[in-house]
Amino acid sequence: MATDPEPWLRLVHAPGVGSARRQRLLARYGDARSIASAPHTELRELGLDSAGIAVIHGEERPAAIARELAWAEAEDCHLLTPDNPSWPGNLAALADPPALLYVRGDPEVLDQPALAIVGSRHPTPAGAETALELARHLAAAGLVIVSGLALGIDGAAHEGALAANGLTVAVAGTGLDRVYPARHADLARRLTAEGAMVSELPLSTRPSRTAFPRRNRIVTGLCLGTLVVEAAPRSGSLISARHTLEQGREVFAIPGSIHNPLARGCHQLIREGAKLVETADDILEEIAPLLTRPPAPAASDTEAATGAAGEPADDPDDARVLAALDWDPRGVDEIATRSGLAPGAVASVLLRLELDGVIHAAPGGLYQRR
Fold first, then answer.
1. Residues 47-58: pLDDT tens digits?
2. Which of 43, 68, 211, 275 would be a feasible disulfide site paired with 48, CB 3.0-4.6 Å?
3. Whether residue 297 sits in one domain with residue 222
4. pLDDT of 313-363, one tens digit each?
5. SS3 assignment for the chain
6. Domain annotation covers residue 99
7. pLDDT tens-digit series, residues 150-167
8. What angle do CA 19, 24, 28 make, to 5 degrees?
9. Residue 254 class from Cβ within 10 Å (0-12 exposed, 13-18 middle, 19+ buried)?
10. Which residues pair with 105 in a beta bridge?
11. What is the pLDDT confidence band of residue 293, given thresholds at 50, 70 and 90?
12. pLDDT tens-digit readout, 170-195
């Protein structure tokens, strides 16, 4: 049964009431209605000024509250409060849960078994495909895929879940009346049709550096665990991994080439105890007991993780170029030296192999196996 969100909206929009003060108020009074009934003198003693108290008591009503209540009247828009039976149980367990969730789509999706997939905004082609294929397989197995709608690994994870006709949730670092980045507007529309977009930020909130770390704790807080795919040693993805550990959830990481700087963050996590992931089964065996339905079997080799295509047969030049390639990016001259073919012949073979889907063209004129 839905609950009245207005007391919670007053708490969110009250001047001078940030996250830390809001948590202190909730710890003392339990919920927004009780805070709204608290005597003026008590709220004063807790550090609120007259302007904040007037909003909490309903004596003043910011225009934003009316706008957000009107927004929630749309069929796919919801204001979800902690006293609502649909509030996600995983979020309720956090030390600093949001006071309110703005939701577009199906709020029931938020309480289903889920995995966060995060990583670089500028992944290698192989990293993006790994994220997409793992998300596709895990969504088909029954997991909701949660990420942050960012470019790179986030977008690939959402697309992978949609490719499996699975469910995916995007946690935004802005108000839900805008999409950031704008180029993901179509992706946001498609995932909202079956899954959901979520934010704890009021409508009209623009992107900012301070919003995204708090966004990340909701990404991980909704989930049973977090998978990191390509991350630099100092990155938001490693902050998400720390959130996951603090929340008592599982951390998974994809290893990579020692020459790939985006693999170093994952290697750091693995050294610190994250589970090394080579296939989807490495994740499913950890969290399958918590799924609502039995997981689908993973592919028997690394294809579920890498999306590896079949290699072309028989052509001797193709075979020599493939033997000279591995999963580290290589330039044409290096491939020519390794294969014994002329650079022009190598370039022709590389084009053919790329069109066949066997190799990737990496930035800088480099190539690697797929």
1. 999 999 999 999
2. 43
3. yes
4. 457 888 888 888 877 788 888 888 888 888 888 888 888 888 888 887 877
5. CCCCCHHHHHHHHCCCCCHHHHHHHHHHHCCHHHHHCCCHHHHHHCCCCHHHHHHHCCCCCCHHHHHHHHHCCCCCEEEECCCCCCCCHHHHCCCCCCCCEEEEECHHHHHCCEEEEEECCCCCHHHHHHHHHHHHHHHHCCCEEEECCCCCHHHHHHHHHHHCCCCEEEECCCCCCCCCCHHHHHHHHHHHHHCEEEECCCCCCCCCCCHHHHHHHHHHHCCCEEEEECCCCCCHHHHHHHHHHHCCCEEEECCCCCCCHHHHHHHHHHHCCCEECCCHHHHHHHHHHHCCCCCCCCCCCCHHHHCCCCCCCCCHHHHHHHHHCCCCCEEHHHHHHHHCCCHHHHHHHHHHHHHCCCEEEECCCEEEEC
6. no
7. 999 999 999 999 999 999
8. 145
9. buried
10. 196
11. low
12. 999 999 999 999 999 999 999 999 89
Using the 3D structure, point to which of 73, 99, 129 is the last residue of a domain: 73
Shared domain check, 32 and 134: no
Clarify whether residues 35 and 144 are in a common domain.
no
Q: Residue 271 — left, alpha, or beta (φ > 0 → left; ψ -120 to 50 → alpha)?
A: alpha
The CA distance from 48 to 255, in Å, is: 49
Whether residue 186 lies inside any domain: the answer is yes
The amino acid sitting at 59 is E
| Enclosing domain of residue 341 | 316-369
Average pLDDT over residues 290-294: 58
pLDDT of residue 288: 75
pLDDT (0 to 100) of residue 353: 85
Both 245 and 162 in one domain: the answer is yes
Domain annotation covers residue 160:
yes
pLDDT in tens, 112-133: 999 999 999 999 888 999 999 9
Name residue 267's amino acid: H
With respect to residue 86, please indicate whether it lies within any of the assigned structural domains.
no
CB 317 within 8 A of CB 341: yes
Q: Are residues 217 and 353 in the same domain?
A: no
Mean pLDDT of the chain: 88
